[in-house]
Amino acid sequence: MNEEIAYTMKVAAQKTGLTPHVIRAWEKRYGAVCPSRTKSNRRFYSESDLKRLMMLARAVRAGHSIGSIAHLNSDKLAKIVQAQGTADDMQAKAPQTIGSLEAESFLEDALRATRAQDSASLERILAAAAVTCSTPELLDLLLVPFMKCLGDLWREGKLRVAQEHMASCIVRTFLGGLLRFTDSSENYPKIIMATPAGQLHEIGALMAAVTAASEGWNPAYLGPNLPAEELAGAAKGIRARAIALSIIYPPDDVRLALELKSLRNYVPDDVSLLVGGRSAGNYRLVLDSIRASLIPDLPSLRNVLEQLRAASIGIRA
Predict the structure, then answer these.
(1) Given its phi and psi angles, is residue 288 left (phi above 0), alpha (psi -120 to 50 degrees) or beta?
(2) Is residue 95 part of a domain?
């Protein structure tokens, strides 16, 4: 690399306003930039890399798909973003904060693509949203409301099963990509993410895993329908500080109460149990009996994870 200044991934994300996930995805999938690497495979970005990433971000926000522009040279990219301002005028900035109008527009576009069963458009909408906002905003203001809308429309008979399945599949894959490209250190406290036995809906657990990763945890996502003994064995194997479970449907499974009690018996008291999801409140009595924290939403999960992480750091110190 000829440039004197080289930037780490963290600094590149701060300067471009893109998340590390987006930068890695654009690099790996589309060859948008080609950073230098150390012998330990750590990425370093040049000034020209950052300028190119900012131009790509501008173009994506303007409605272009990353797949259609990532191969363009810098001169052609500059022409594309000229309508939003010249490339030389671009200022380094943090990720934008979206407002209610932007969130509403996202939902309308995503639902329109879902009704049309236009998977490519829905993927582009999600990718553009990931560029525009931070991880908490992406989850709280966009994906959570979108998934709720899908469920409501399906129950009201206003959405076909095939349409709902298509959208859910794309969201699941998108969240998996977010999780896969998130920075995690072995020094971060570890947490198991899954759904317990009998619970097959995993998107809530995936959202919780992405949330944990963005809050300085090292999540081990195990997927849906895990028996208590498997959850406990995984937690012991990686020395997890906590186990987080998502309970969506059914809301009245008598076997689940037994599973939760078994899990508490299998894991030591210093492993925190966190349980959320649409139907988690229906199991409040058993959750209280096993000293599990009932998590009503993702902002609450962030607060609990912050407290547990601080306590974990204090213990190690």
Answers:
(1) alpha
(2) no
| CA distance readout (Å), 87 to 43, 51, 56, 76, 81 | 24, 8, 10, 11, 7
Confidence (pLDDT) at 274: 98
CB 247 within 8 A of CB 280: yes
25: how many CB neighbours lie within 10 A of its CB?
Answer: 20
Q: Specify if 94 maps to a domain.
A: no
Q: Are residues 223 and 301 in the same domain?
A: yes
**Contact present, 85 and 91 (Cβ < 8 Å):** no
Number of other CB atoms surrounding residue 116 within 10 Å: 11
Structure tokens at 55: 């131009």
Q: 51 near 90, Cβ under 8 Å?
A: yes
Taking 70 as the pLDDT cut, the residues of the chain under it are: 1-4, 21, 63, 83-102, 183-185, 313-317
CATH of the domain at 18: 1.10.1660.10
In a domain, 2, yes or no: no
Q: Is residue 1 part of a domain?
A: no
State the maximum Cα–Cα separation within the chain, in Å, rounded to a whole number: 65
Domain span holding position 26: 9-89
Residues 175 and 253 in one domain: no
Q: Do 200 and 279 lie in a common domain?
A: yes
Q: What is the pLDDT of residue 60?
A: 78
φ and ψ of 67, to 5 deg: -65, -25
